[in-house]
């Protein structure tokens, strides 16, 4: 497709005449000029082209209006571009802020506003008052260019200039001539390498299209879509061939895999083999001794019976033992262990005594027979328990304290010197341009914005200072001129275009980075 640089360098006669007339009107006086045209006539391109090549030496400001912006934001965008490190109040009128910023010297200002039909009537009145004030002050020159749709600002401009003997200047962007349309189409589609039928079809489409740059650029996008569709149709037979080969390979693999199954099938036994097995008789969860001997003497002609018998034995072993509810003791497995049954009334008396702070011995002393039985049992168990405890105690020689492992002390490393985010942008040519996506007051908010829109591969953050406060600006791209940057904006994702990126020169970016120093 045709590169953005070639499209940017295409200057048509009607556009050159319009830009030359604007330059003549703004060279020696202060004026408010309204440039109108219908949708697609290239108002945005003309505004940026004028600033790039025709504006001359002046303090310039470009405002790309958006429906979500208010008057305070419009004033802030304009004033920050007109004066370096400007200090102002966003709520003050433009004339008051400009007088305060340029009080010590004259001012040569150029304010270009695209989509000016989105401006409020109050801000239009402030711009007109700023131009009128500059006309009455020697050494001052203020020109305001309003690029808007036809008829959208006539009512407001006539209202603010009523009774003053002077009215804003209005210029109209005319449609392209037939010769300009042909030239535009030839340059745009120069690298498409169309054949004769393709060029003839393209000329017919151009003749049926509105003679505006925007409508003609839509033909380029349509042509790209058609070429992409044709290329995808050419690739489809290759995809079909790959799918066919995959199916053939799967069929061959399926034919060879079942060859290993007959060996495993022969190991399975038929249902009649199970009838020859003796039915085991269960006794306490195990086979009786006589049944086991009979199983050993049986002929082992079928290996499958051994497998089944082993499985039956394993299953019987996993059965739970019978539950015995009599003579259970806690903590002892010996059958000779003795137990003492304490009556419930004695237990209640001991519990009551313990609740009152006693040990329970008085309640036990009231029943001499129970106390004697408990004493005899404790005397029998005292000796073996003490010996077992002594034997289980580890010797002093066996327990040796482990040597303390040496502790490595890590010396704190000196902290690295803080680097300013975006310092690498200083290496970019100051004549180039970028797209500013957002301006946030913290690095975490900037990283969150990048993560939300998934632009970590194309976005760059640099730090600046505004009124002494840190700001983190998110930009993208390195474009040789303003038109290339505007073209790149149209290729951004729709979600990212919704935040209204605007073109910013690297010269201004370098100045903002230097503010951190």
UniProtKB/TrEMBL annotation:
The chain crosses the membrane at residues 238-257. InterPro entries: AAA_22 (IPR049945), ExeA_AAA_ATPase_DNA-bind (IPR052026), P-loop_NTPase (IPR027417), SPOR-like_dom (IPR007730), SPOR-like_sf (IPR036680). Keywords: Membrane, Transmembrane, Transmembrane helix. Residues 262-281, 295-323, 390-422 are annotated as: Disordered. Residues 427-505 form the SPOR domain. Residues 398-414 have a biased composition (Low complexity). Coiled coil: none annotated. It comes from the Bacteria. The keyword Membrane applies. PANTHER family: GENERAL SECRETION PATHWAY PROTEIN A-RELATED. This is DamX, an inner membrane protein involved in bile resistance. It comes from Photobacterium marinum.
